[in-house]
Amino acid sequence: MTDNIVASAPADLVREDRVAGRLYTDPEIFEQELTRIFERTWVWVAHDSELPRPGTFKSTFVGRQPVVVTRDRKGTVHTLVNRCRHRGASLCEKPYGQANGFTCPYHAWSYGLDGTLRGVPYPDGYEGVLDKKDLSLRKLRTESFHGMIFATFAEDIEPLEDFLGDAKLWIERFFKQGGGYPVKVLGRHRFRFRGNWKIQLENTTDGYHFPIVHRSWMASVDAETADMMSFMTDPAAITHHLGNGHSVSIMVPDHADLDADDGTEPLQPRFDGLVAELKRQGLDDLGVRKLVRAMHGTGSNLNLFPNVSMSISFLRVLRPISVDETEIEHVALGPDGPAGIVDPVNRERLRIHEHFQGPFGFGTPDDAEGWDRVQRGARAVPEMPILVNRGLAREKTSPEGWPTSHVTDETGMRAAYQQWKRMMHDD
Fold it and tell me: Cystine design at 80: which of 137, 176, 389, 397 (Cβ 3.0–4.6 Å)?
């Protein structure tokens, strides 16, 4: 079981029950991942609510390539490479905002929200050598599902909905946390850790670490919340391998589908003040219950290969910087509706988000320390295997046809590495 993995091709470094530590430390493998994975599959770039009106945009990355996601005047969403077609300068340095188009700061070539080249200053030097219609910004194929916007450099790739496959059900369930309202982005914050991107990819559906790494968080919350997250011995807490590298870990089975509510679960006393405020706003008992019961989000973590997870109540987005550095963006979410109703709900949701995910929270700093230490340790004997075999012997097939095991097992990791192996095979 502990034999070292020695192989020449990157794909051969992944086996069913283990992967070589070199996957975290080899710069050549990292460079291949950028082209073979991040530039050849669907990568999440934005949520619909981040582009609320025509002319709004968001700057982000597909792998290491800078892009701008825009909504044009007709409402169509585009993903454009953030690079002027003239001399290569970046066009947009703002993280998000509103614009009529983009103008290069170097020579003032200007582009529309759909990437069309609109203007070239002093055009008299270009007679016979420039055709504007051939010099639009490079545009990525862009599709969305349930407000989640993805882009890809691969023009011949399968449709987004086919790629998401059985994960679509869990995306739909995740957005039920709006309590009957649409879900919007409330805010975001970024940080970097000193480790490989796959270390974080593994973490989202790793229930095994939770009571160990997050003891301080468990000690800081009320008894009802701590009990809700005590899933280690719950046989109904399971992880599904959904195909194409996607997986879902169900930590709070009673909240996996928020619509499946028989009305018997009491609302947590900590929200009594919020309940009273919502009732003063005229919301009926059912409306109050839906919003307050969804205060912690859904009961599952959904991992969408390769770069985004829908983690209980927020989005976690990873961006590979180098073989041993990764940027993480945490995106807080909440319902989008009448201010008198959703504002108090979203204030409370932000406090919950900060308590665990925030930079001074009880959860994320502990996770990041673990990720850092995995990277440091993996430098020793890089061919020594990283084990992903927990639960392999008890993995079964669910009625839906999904490989399934307990939430503490490494089914989700095996799902991601199977997709990694397929994509990293030589052409």
Answer: 137
pTM for this entry? 0.94
From the list 302, 297, 308, 259, the residue with the least C-alpha distance to 402 is 302
Residues 314 and 308: their CA atoms lie apart, in Å, by 10
CA dist., res. 37 & res. 168, Å (int): 21
Q: Find tokens 């969305």 and name the residue.
A: 144
pLDDT at 209: 78
- Residue 224 in this model has a pLDDT that exceeds 90: no
**How far from chain centre, in Å, is Cα 136?**
29
